């Protein structure tokens, strides 16, 4: 049912933890089930130099958070904004259809953290206008 990559990122999640002096923090939750994902970003010169996450959720949510942090680490803000939950799921070699919503949490937590960064620094990030 789960790909090897999902199992690997669930058993050995990358970038777990928090960043104390984070430049952007984003938290999203699914009110129906209470699952929560929190993403911390360290940003220098428009580049995501560090990223950490904390997820209270199922294995797919943890694997999605882990993969999503790997996908945006070292990338520019512009690239991170474009990360879709579909791309996260594809990088994991797929998620079962009933678990796709778990990868949506990862996309939204990253966008929320970028929005927090944008607000704190009084900048606008293209592609985030419609996200709130
Ligand atoms: Fe909560 Fe899937 S059951 S996000
Ligand atoms: Fe709750 Fe995946 S985060 S089912």
TrEMBL record:
One GO MF term, please? iron ion binding
Domain NIF system FeS cluster assembly NifU N-terminal, first and last residues per copy: 1-122
**What's a Pfam family this protein contains?**
NifU_N
Q: From which domain of life does this come?
A: Bacteria
SUPFAM superfamilies from the UniProt entry: SufE/NifU
The UniProt entry, under InterPro entries, shows: NIF_FeS_clus_asmbl_NifU-like, NIF_FeS_clus_asmbl_NifU_N
Q: What organism is the protein native to?
A: Caloranaerobacter azorensis DSM 13643
Any idea what this protein is called?
Answer: Nitrogen fixation protein NifU
One of the protein's GO biological processes: iron-sulfur cluster assembly
